[in-house]
Design brief:
Elements (H helix, E strand, L loop, with lengths): L17 H50 L7 H29 L9 E4 H18 L3 E5 L6 E4 L1 H18 L5 E9 L2 E8 L6 H6 L5 H6 L9 H12 L3 E6 L5 E8 L10
Parallel strand pairs: 2-4
Antiparallel strand pairs: 1-3, 4-5, 5-7, 6-7
Helix pairs in contact: 1-2, 3-4, 4-7
Length: 271
Amino acid sequence: DSHGHAGVRGDVAQRGPAEVAEMSDSLNRLAGALAHSENRQREFLLSVSHELRTPLTGVTGYAEALADGVITGDDVPRTGAVMLTEAERLERLVSDLLDLSRAGAADLRLDPAPVDLVAFADQAGTVWADRCSREGVSFRLERPTAPLTLVTDAVRLRQIVDNLAENALRVTPAGAPVVLAVRAEGADVVVEVRDGGPGLTTDDITVAFAPAALYARYRGVRRSGTGVGLALVARLAARLGGVAMAGRAAEGGAAFAVRLPRTPPWSGPPQ
């Protein structure tokens, strides 16, 4: 309308001339498209805040520990290395946001390269063991002893792990476990996070990766997030040529995983 309200709909389609009816229908479609665009923008902003929160929390926690003198001696260089890694991840995320704003693209760039998943799991496990310890949650890392290499984008894979671990830690009570597992299954690799939280029903599993679906279902009943992180996991898994999966964990809670091919699905240069 003249005041810029996108939600206004025309109602003359059934009682005006054909041209007016057609115009009304076009305006209604435009209003619907604008509303959809606004919802996508909100979802994007939520996902960005979710993405940035995990590395920021890690850097802040380590910085506070250093400032308070909790971390001393030989642990200082190791802590500095972890903080540097987390800061580099933040820098990459900010660069991606700038790239998106310049190009107006909906997808993120991928940089596939050989990744040592054993070292990858050890690095991610170090951060999440500390995070879980602060919450009184036990952490366990399951990974092979033999080398396991995957051609993928290590930064995107770490985003997946962090989102799954953040989601698990949010719902896991003190004393219960969070497990990060990496394993080979045939020609694929599975990266999985399991927890000892309240778990998922059969209906939950079917909508687990839909934004806000579980949040709407359990709001006021139990602690849950917006679901943007899980939706992002599914999207990233697909972009990496794999699939996201949800189920029940042997630990009594939920199991979320991504199954990825050992070699990337791209035949051309990195996207």
